[in-house]
Amino acid sequence: MSWYDRFIVFCGVGFGSGLMPKAPGTWGSAFALLFIPLWLISGFTLSVILITIMSVVGIYICDHTAKIMNVHDDGRIVWDEFAGQSITLLPLIYFNLIDIKWSLIAFVLFRIFDVWKPWPIRVADQKVAGGFGIMLDDLIAGAWAALCIIVYLWLV
Fold first, then answer.
1. Residue 153 domain flag
2. Could you list the residue range(s) of the whole structural domain that residue 12 is in?
3. What percent of the chain has pLDDT over 90?
4. Is residue 151 part of a domain?
5. 89 or 1, which is more confident?
């Protein structure tokens, strides 16, 4: 494998966080919480831009990693969790509510949607192929989890 392929796979497996023997998606999502200082420093608008870039680049990273592993959406590929978990954090960044409690709530909500896969997450997971398919279900799960946070904050 070339150095370039190794680098892409390293990114695809979440800098190693997806290589944990049990629950790699959970570990990848937890690792994504380490991006919180970056999102706070960046502010809401720049965070949206950076997460969008992360998501677009992630399509290539996930696709290339899956081809090298020869498995579509291998559990060790967690770049998609990075993007989905980061989307879940956006309302907290916007409302300046990032603390340990809200970070854990965002983490749990994202994992619930990512594992449960309600509509349309399940459809995206089953019907969309390639790197876009790998990314799409997690992006939707992140949006659903973010929407839950927004609805809760709106009702309170």
1. no
2. 3-146
3. 95
4. no
5. 89
| Number of CB atoms found within 10 A of residue 88's CB | 30
* 101 neighbors 110 (Cβ within 8 angstroms): no
pLDDT at residue 104 tops 90:
yes
Alpha carbons within 13 angstroms on the beta-carbon side of residue 8 total 19
Provide the token pair at 92: 């907290």
Q: How many domains does the chain have?
A: 1
Identify whether 22 is part of a domain: yes
The answer to whether residue 45 scores a pLDDT higher than 90 is yes
Long-range pairs of 6-9 with CB within 8 A, sequence gap ≥ 24: 8/60, 8/61, 8/64, 8/65, 8/68, 9/64, 9/65, 9/68, 9/69
Task: State how far the Cα of 99 lies from the Cα of 106, in Å rounded to an integer.
Answer: 11
Q: Does residue 156 form part of some domain?
A: no
pLDDT at 73: 81
Residue type, 71: V
Q: What is the DSSP string of 84-124?
A: HHHHHHHHHHHTT--SHHHHHHHHHHHHHHHHH--TTHHHH
Is the CB of residue 70 less than 8 Å from the CB of residue 132? no
